[in-house]
Amino acid sequence: MTRLEALTNPDLLLGELQRENDYLRSILDALPAGIYATDAEGRITYFNKAAAELAGAPPVLGTAKWSILKQLYDCDGNPLAADEFPIAKALKSHEPVRGQDVLAERPDGVRVPLLPFPTPLFDASGKLSGAVDMLVDITDRKRAEEALRHNEERLRLATQTGKVGLWEWDIQANRISWTDSLYALHGLKRDEFAATVESFSSLVHPDDRERVAAALKRTLSDDAPYELEFRAVRPDGEIVWLYSNAIVVRDGGTPARLVGATFDITDRVLAEQALKESEARERAHAAQVEAIMEAVPAALWIAHDPDCRTITGNRMSYEFLRMKPFSNVSLTADADERPEHFEVICGGRPLPAEELPVQRAARGDTIRDFEEEIRFSDGASRYLFGNATPLRDGSGKLWGAVSAFVDITERKHAEAQRDLLLAELSHRVKNTLATVISIAHQSFAKGPSFDESRRSFELRIRALAQTHVRLSDSNWSGVSIDRILQEETAPYRRDDGSNVHISGPDIVLNAKSAVTLGMAFHELATNAAKYGALSVKEGMVNAHWEIDADRQVLISWTETNGPPVALPTRSGFGRLLLERVLTSDLNGTVDLDFLPEGFRCAITFSLDRYVARLA
């Protein structure tokens, strides 16, 4: 049994709290269920505020036995002997006792119906140490059950005295004969209603009509019993619950009449609904009590003395500190108990033990919104954010402190990642602006005409923007070579894609190389579409890449079946980008071959420096 399981199980909650010197007494006193605990002999050792209020007077600890109330009775009002009390049975059998409703007599003589949940407690060696009992007041449920019995008796009397609607349906004539009492059940007058099957159907609640019709059909077809509960709508809009049963009278084997009776069961249905709602509330309340500690998404630490020599916590706190449950986590504990595998950092410096939140709270300070780092000896760190509050006894004297901290490690990592991304974005924007200036100089300085230069500039800016979109889609984690080539050659591929062949292993480029190669592939594709293989129907482009034994990425762009290639007389922006920018940015090599049978470009760069990952 772990510590958190004990704290979150209402059947074991008080036994754990007794061993913890009632450090969560304030929480239990806020619970609306009476809770008390006994030792192995049945002597009461603890009770919460609700239990004292239920008893009418607080019992004497260590003296009172078995129950916080004066006397217990069974459901019939018979007094129970002490060894018949539910908690006595739990202590004797060493097993929880469930489902035994009792009547408890308060000192003022009032008897209260209760549902007890006694459960035995055992120490670490498995020896019985006592028991804990949670008392749930079921007065509302008992009232609902009494109301249900009362209404059932009223229904029985109504049947016996003739206060029930009788009817007969002549199937051939399609006429229904009703008694006056049945007209009264429906809130109708005899002269205001023509009793036919169709008119009767109009009285049934719309949501129940299909079900009523199906029941009638089954009864007439195979003599199935006609027993049905349904809702009817009165002229004033009031909805009543009715119960009908009937038998078939046959004439020569053919159904001739249906004879039945109808009862008003509204009170019974409402009582059942009230009972179900009451039971649902009770179950929800019990579940809330059981889950109250489990629902706290925080590491809890409790100092059990003003000097904080002993500090314990819940399961989450021990897991967080990498310690065994029930260990002493205090950094001011004796040397043989004090943990040595972590330190607490705040503001970039280790915090002395006396400055820790729990220690400060134990001296009377209330700590709010405190952020700290738990740094372990293996270099790992976790970050916490939370509060610490002093604990005082009834006289106001300090006896310890409690703290609740949530793990914000992921948030801190996210903040660091955000700062890194912002710095990277700033750097990328500067580089992009420099690239735009270079594109502008090359496009406008040497273009044969302003329109052509502007068109070339726009296409290059779009290619640059497209690369940024790709990187943004991947949170700047990288873009694959295949995706860049597919998108840059897409405008020039035939419908069947046969004029462009792209192949190679899955390689994801980092942000820097993706921007540079994106621009390079744009220039290659644009040049092939204007002057090279993609400018004619028969032309072919083959783009292939691989990784060699020296962990170099080799990319080849080969054009075939295009117009004859001649060595260019001047160097445009595309050639400048390929031979200078790409070589500089990737610290690699670029070889351009203007062969008569087709243009070729070979690019080589380091796998380890410019590839984010192999997909």
Label the overall shape.
flat
Low-confidence parts: none
> What characterizes the major β-sheet?
7 strands, antiparallel
Return the structural class: alpha+beta
How many domains make up the 3D coordinates?
Answer: 4
Number of helices: 18
CATH class of the largest domain: Alpha Beta
CATH topology of the largest domain: Heat Shock Protein 90
What is the rounded Rg? 42 Å
Let me know the number of strands.
27
Report, as a whole number of angstroms, the end-to-end distance. Answer: 45 Å
**Beta-strand residue fraction:** 25-35%
Helix content class: 25-40%
Provide the residue-averaged pLDDT: 79
Topology of helices and strands:
Layout: H1 3-8, H2 13-19, H3 25-30, E1 34-39, E2 44-47, H4 49-55, E3 71-73, H5 86-93, E4 102-105, E5 111-116, E6 119-122, E7 128-137, H6 139-160, E8 165-170, E9 175-178, H7 180-185, H8 197-203, H9 209-222, E10 226-233, E11 239-251, E12 254-264, H10 266-291, E13 299-303, E14 311-313, H11 315-321, E15 342-346, E16 349-350, H12 357-362, E17 367-376, E18 381-392, E19 398-407, H13 409-446, H14 450-473, E20 479-480, H15 481-489, E21 500-503, E22 507-509, H16 511-530, E23 540-547, E24 552-560, H17 573-586, E25 589-595, E26 598-606, H18 607-610, E27 611-614
Parallel strand pairs: 21-23
Antiparallel strand pairs: 1-2, 1-7, 3-4, 4-5, 5-7, 6-7, 8-9, 8-12, 10-11, 11-12, 13-14, 13-19, 15-16, 15-17, 17-18, 18-19, 20-22, 22-27, 23-24, 24-26, 25-26
Q: What does the model show?
A:
By secondary structure, the protein is an alpha+beta fold. It folds into four domains: 3-137, Beta-Lactamase (2-Layer Sandwich), CATH 3.30.450.20; 146-270, PAS domain (Beta-Lactamase); 299-407, PAS domain (Beta-Lactamase); 413-614, Histidine kinase-like ATPase, C-terminal domain (Heat Shock Protein 90). It is built from 18 helices and 27 strands. Strands 1, 2, 3, 4, 5, 6 and 7 form a seven-stranded antiparallel beta sheet that branches. The longest helix has 38 residues, at 409-446.
